[in-house]
UniProtKB/TrEMBL annotation:
The lineage of its organism: Bacteria, Pseudomonadati, Pseudomonadota, Gammaproteobacteria, Lysobacterales. It comes from the Bacteria. Its cofactor is pyridoxal 5'-phosphate. One of its GO terms (molecular function) is transaminase activity. The keyword Transferase applies. Residues 25-378 form the Aminotransferase class I/classII large domain. This is Methionine aminotransferase. Keywords: Aminotransferase, Pyridoxal phosphate, Transferase.
Length: 381
């Protein structure tokens, strides 16, 4: 068959979770917490459903949620946002990314992706008829090489994807990256940003999250995307949003309204309740996840896996070259099937995976008991 996405198979997250299930492995592969969402949010969800909030919601999201998002973004980033014109609630960050790309990328437009990157970016671009242009992050630090980005930009470039904190590496963008972005947008007036900030509340060691929404000149040219699945430990609720200037939001909503129209109504009420009544939840997340990162890295000292630095997000990359010379896909299958711990290989995050890279991604959004049990198995490698 003449397929539209010839390079795409089933996502690595689905493949590895399925394999983990078949082999009863501890799943540190696909990124999701194994602890529950906050109880008040579950209660608010049930209450919304009981109170009859079960039909279509307004296309852009319920006003209560858009207002609560606006208040939070103002408090976190000093952003000045109009909930009516700038915020659109979506079915997860994934839908927001898809809608943003389809709203502005025309056939033949180039979109710069920084490899390694999350696997839904490239297919969204290709389905819109866009041309993905891959630029490598620094192989050692996963920092952005801004000269390489500049060199990749042509008159056809419509969009640049950034992702901070970064999946899979855990790198975060800093002040010098923000300066570089300002220069880039000034020099390339047609360029827009897709800023994937789904891990915005998991930034460690006292660093601050560099949302594009902190910087008016960047916000004026960006879709900023986030996901309540990450912030509230409920990846299966599939609720997120995009913030963009009015003109971009208008185009975004043209796609959103014919893609999903609206997102799961009871969850919108539940998240609005959390944002209004339990704002301290997201304020506590950096310390909560930093403690998990530190505990997990300390445990990995008992293994021959070498942990790379992690500044944000909930993934830990490990170099397994002391243990095995298998390629990353084979290594991750092997530890899943033979050692009972599922991990994610890095190669699916690249258009051209670096030869000889021996890295696997482990998710530490897990209870201590889960991490301890997994490391006890990994220590035998
Ligand atoms: N971007 C990144 C970097 C992610 O890791 C994920 C993971 N799920 C998403 C976007 C999509 O978010 P959601 O699950 O809310 O669709
Ligand atoms: N974002 C998750 C990860 O990186 C995967 C989400 C999914 O499977 N769609 O593990």
């Amino acid at each position: 068959m003449d397929t539209k996405l010839p390079r795409v198979g089933t996502t690595i997250f689905t493949v590895m979770s399925q394999l983990a299930m078949e082999h009863k492995a501890i799943n540190l592969g696909q990124g999701f917490p194994d602890f529950p969402p906050p109880e008040p949010m579950i209660e608010a969800l049930a209450r919304a459903a009981r109170d009859g909030r079960n039909q279509y919601s307004p296309m852009a999201g319920i006003p209560e949620l858009r207002e609560a998002i606006t208040a939070k973004l103002e408090a976190c980033y000093g952003a000045r946002i109009d909930p009516g014109a700038h915020v659109t609630v979506t079915s997860g960050g994934s839908e927001a990314i898809f809608d943003a790309v389809h709203a502005v990328v025309r056939p033949g437009d180039e979109v710069v992706l920084l490899d390694p990157c999350y696997d839904c970016y490239e297919p969204a671009v290709e389905l819109a008829g866009g041309v993905p242009v891959h630029v490598a992050l620094d192989p050692a630090t996963f920092a952005v090489d801004w000269q390489a980005v500049e060199a990749a930009i042509t008159p056809r470039t419509r969009m640049l994807f950034i992702n901070t904190p970064h999946n899979p590496s855990g790198a975060v963008l800093g002040e010098s990256d923000i300066t570089a972005l300002h220069g880039l947008l000034e020099r390339h007036p047609r360029l827009l940003l897709l800023s994937d900030e789904v891990y915005e509340h998991m930034v460690f060691d006292g660093a601050r999250h560099e949302s594009v929404l902190r910087h008016p000149a960047l916000a004026a040219r960006s879709f900023a995307v986030s996901s309540f699945g990450k912030t509230y430990h409920c990846t299966g609720w599939k609720l997120g949003y995009a913030v963009a200037p009015a003109a971009l939001s208008t185009e975004f909503r043209k796609v959103h309204q014919y893609n999903t129209f609206c997102s799961f109504t009871p969850a919108q009420y539940a998240v609005a309740h959390m944002l209004r009544e339990h704002a301290d939840h997201h304020e506590e997340l950096p310390a909560f996840y930093q403690a998990k990162r530190d505990a997990f890295r300390a445990m990995l000292g008992d293994t021959r896996l070498r942990p790379l630095p992690v500044s944000g997000g909930y993934f830990q990359l490990v170099d397994y070259s002391e243990v095995s010379d298998l390629d990353d896909a084979s290594f991750c299958r092997w530890i899943t099937t033979e050692h009972g711990v599922a991990a994610i290989p890095l190669s699916p995050f690249y258009r051209h995976p670096p030869q000889g890279q021996r890295l696997a991604r482990l998710c530490f959004a897990k209870d201590s008991a889960t991490l301890e049990a997994a490391v006890a198995r990994l220590a035998k490698l």
